[in-house]
């Protein structure tokens, strides 16, 4: 089908915005006249022009717009955000037909862009490759419909199912390989925030930065109820924006903020509400067992990525158990198997 072919191109274009558009969604647009693509564009970076604007700008002969169709993976926006409404631009340029992948879940748009175009007498088709277009912006959809970040739980485990040796100090066992580290750092670069529990922060002293892949560092988050992290911890070094959840407030410094939680009630909803308020659209949780299990037990997660090594540990900290396995796939990278669980909450 022609419509699907052009929508597939929109999705392909949109993916170029990965890592740069959050908290906006990835969006791609294609302009077709006489069965020829005359313009293409995608949303490059949050705060900059939307996909439709870039596609319209790329058209060499603007007089063709009056008899063209614009394909766009997401409903054109109808509101004034950091940029003006795309629906208005499409109307102004007199583009007669608009083919849309899926509706925008953002409450300021949510159908109003489609309505605006229809009110202006344009032919609007909605839902071409809808499933794929929604998949493309799953993090954005989760954030706007569930009012919490999209949550990826990640751990590495041994062939016999341990995530670490029992220890009070000393180094963690290395289950990752240079190749799997690259894949994990790629996932970090795609996240807005990354989080660890107190024990992991203390014992591993992780930097939680993106080093083995290209891309921005996510906001670092750690739990430290009693301010037990030493000042020499990597997480407190001020190199990357970092939030530390504690029981008692303490003044922060550049790139370091302490946020008090009420430990008399469940802290998970409080943490997620804070991240939502701060527009952090996705969160990767990298351990340890207690924190991972608190997400699993409360059913609050969207993806689980397990890096299963071929090494055996014979004893140690047992890997968390997943209670509700919705969809599952496996991928092999030399000796390591990546297990991937996906839950569709939206
Ligand atoms: C589109 N095309 O390429 C994108 C859209 O603050 P702004 O102006 O950048 O608006 C952000 C909102 O616009 C975002 O929350 C989402 O609803 C929509 N994103 N819309 O027509 C695009 N990125
Ligand atoms: Zn727009």
UniProtKB/TrEMBL annotation:
Record-listed NADP(+) binding positions: 156, 200, 204, 288-294
Domain CMP/dCMP-type deaminase: 1-125
Protein EC: 3.5.4.26, 1.1.1.193
Entry-linked SUPFAM superfamilies: Cytidine deaminase-like, Dihydrofolate reductase-like
Cofactor: Zn(2+)
GO biological process assignments: riboflavin biosynthetic process
Cofactor note text: Binds 1 zinc ion.
Keywords tagged on the record: Hydrolase, Metal-binding, Multifunctional enzyme, NADP, Oxidoreductase, Riboflavin biosynthesis, Zinc
Residues holding substrate: 188, 208, 211, 286
Binding site for Zn(2+): 50, 77, 86
Keyword Lipoprotein: no
Record's catalysed reaction(s): 2,5-diamino-6-hydroxy-4-(5-phosphoribosylamino)-pyrimidine + H2O + H(+) = 5-amino-6-(5-phospho-D-ribosylamino)uracil + NH4(+); 5-amino-6-(5-phospho-D-ribitylamino)uracil + NADP(+) = 5-amino-6-(5-phospho-D-ribosylamino)uracil + NADPH + H(+)
Active site feature: 52 (proton donor)
InterPro entries: APOBEC/CMP_deaminase_Zn-bd (IPR016192), CMP_dCMP_dom (IPR002125), Cytidine_deaminase-like (IPR016193), DHFR-like_dom_sf (IPR024072), Eubact_RibD (IPR004794), RibDG_C (IPR002734), Riboflavin_Biosynth_HTPR (IPR050765)
Pathway as given in its UniProt record: Cofactor biosynthesis; riboflavin biosynthesis; 5-amino-6-(D-ribitylamino)uracil from GTP: step 2/4; Cofactor biosynthesis; riboflavin biosynthesis; 5-amino-6-(D-ribitylamino)uracil from GTP: step 3/4
Superkingdom field: Bacteria
Molecular function in Gene Ontology: 5-amino-6-(5-phosphoribosylamino)uracil reductase activity; diaminohydroxyphosphoribosylaminopyrimidine deaminase activity; zinc ion binding
Protein task: Converts 2,5-diamino-6-(ribosylamino)-4(3h)-pyrimidinone 5'-phosphate into 5-amino-6-(ribosylamino)-2,4(1h,3h)-pyrimidinedione 5'-phosphate.
Family: In the N-terminal section; belongs to the cytidine and deoxycytidylate deaminase family.
Name of this protein: Riboflavin biosynthesis protein RibD
Organism: Bacteroides fragilis
């Amino acid at each position: 089908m022609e419509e699907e072919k052009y929508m597939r191109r929109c999705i392909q274009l949109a993916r170029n915005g990965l890592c740069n558009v959050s908290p906006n969604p990835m969006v791609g647009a294609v302009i077709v006249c006489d069965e020829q693509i005359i313009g293409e564009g995608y949303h490059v970076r949050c705060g900059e022009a939307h996909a439709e604007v870039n596609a319209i700008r790329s058209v060499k002969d603007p007089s063709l717009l009056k008899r063209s169709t614009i394909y766009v993976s997401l409903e054109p926006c109808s509101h004034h955000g950091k940029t003006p409404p795309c629906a208005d631009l499409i109307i102004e340029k007199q583009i007669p037909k608009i083919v849309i992948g899926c509706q925008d879940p953002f409450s300021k748009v949510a159908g109003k862009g489609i309505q605006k175009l229809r009110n202006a007498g344009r032919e609007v088709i909605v839902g071409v490759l809808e499933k794929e277009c929604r998949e493309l912006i799953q993090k954005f959809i989760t954030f706007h419909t569930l009012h919490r970040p999209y949550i990826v739980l990640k751990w590495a485990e041994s062939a016999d199912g341990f995530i670490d040796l029992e220890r009070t100090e000393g180094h963690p066992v290395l289950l990752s390989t240079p190749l799997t580290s690259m894949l994990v750092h790629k996932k970090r670069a795609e996240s807005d925030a990354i989080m660890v529990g107190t024990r992991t922060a203390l014992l591993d002293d992780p930097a939680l930065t993106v080093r083995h892949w290209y891309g921005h560092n996510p906001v670092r988050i750690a739990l430290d109820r009693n301010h037990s992290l030493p000042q020499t911890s990597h997480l407190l070094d001020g190199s990357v924006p970092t939030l530390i959840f504690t029981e008692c407030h303490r003044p922060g410094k550049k790139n370091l903020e302490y946020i008090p939680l009420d430990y008399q009630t469940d802290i998970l909803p409080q943490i997620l509400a804070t991240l939502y308020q701060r527009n952090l659209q996705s969160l990767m949780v990298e351990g340890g067992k207690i924190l991972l299990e608190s997400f699993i037990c409360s059913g609050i997660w969207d993806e689980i990525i397990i890096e299963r090594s071929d090494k055996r540990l014979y004893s140690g900290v047992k890997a968390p158990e997943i209670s509700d396995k919705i969809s599952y796939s496996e991928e092999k990278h030399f000796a390591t198997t990546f297990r991937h669980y996906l839950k569709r909450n939206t």
